[in-house]
Specification:
By secondary structure, this protein is α+β, with helices and mostly antiparallel strands. Helices cover 25% and strands 15% of the residues. It has 3 helices and 5 strands, in the order E-E-E-E-E-H-H-H. A 5-stranded antiparallel beta sheet has the order 1-2-3-4-5, with no helix packed on it. It is extended and about 55 Å long.
Length: 158
């Protein structure tokens, strides 16, 4: 998913979605690299492609599209509120992070009702606070242990 910039590895920045019947490419060459596509099987070649998005060139930038929608709402006195979409998107990123770090399947309802603190006492964090994640006496930081630590991101051993 997304990017790899490790020396000696193929550089890639794309979003792949794998399923039991095929693979989809959410973006190519960056955050919003068009076109998106769906392929039969797990090899995303042109010969295996069963669908490709068709987006007009002037509508390919989601950033410009968002700006156009906002300006249109202002000029035409239309309601415009992306708060709910933004909150849901943020929650889904936390869901993905928790699933990756614990190795567990996490549902939308589970993350919505989770009592896990992603960073302890985050509501009390100030510019003078110690970092929420601290190293141990050897200078090592805790890391996720998927499948071992299943109810939180990592053990706090500071």
């Amino acid at each position: 998913m997304d990017g790899r910039c490790i020396a000696g590895c193929k550089e890639i920045f794309a979003s792949f979605i794998h399923g039991s019947k095929g693979v989809a490419i959410g973006s190519k060459s960056g955050d919003c690299g068009m076109p998106s596509s769906i392929h039969k099987g797990q090899n995303p070649t042109r010969s295996n492609m069963i669908w490709e998005s068709k987006v007009r060139r002037d509508e390919r930038s989601p950033y410009q599209n968002e700006w156009n929608d906002l300006v249109d709402a202002i000029r035409n006195d239309k309601p415009y509120n992306e708060t709910e979409r933004g909150v849901r998107a943020s929650l889904v990123t936390s869901l993905g992070r928790m699933a990756a770090h614990t190795g567990q399947e996490i549902t939308y309802e589970q993350i919505l009702n989770s009592d896990h603190e992603m960073a302890p006492d985050l509501d009390k964090l100030t510019m003078d606070s110690p970092a929420p994640l601290r190293s141990n006496s050897e200078g090592r930081y805790p890391v996720p242990e998927p499948g071992i630590v299943k109810d939180r991101e990592y053990r706090d051993f500071a």
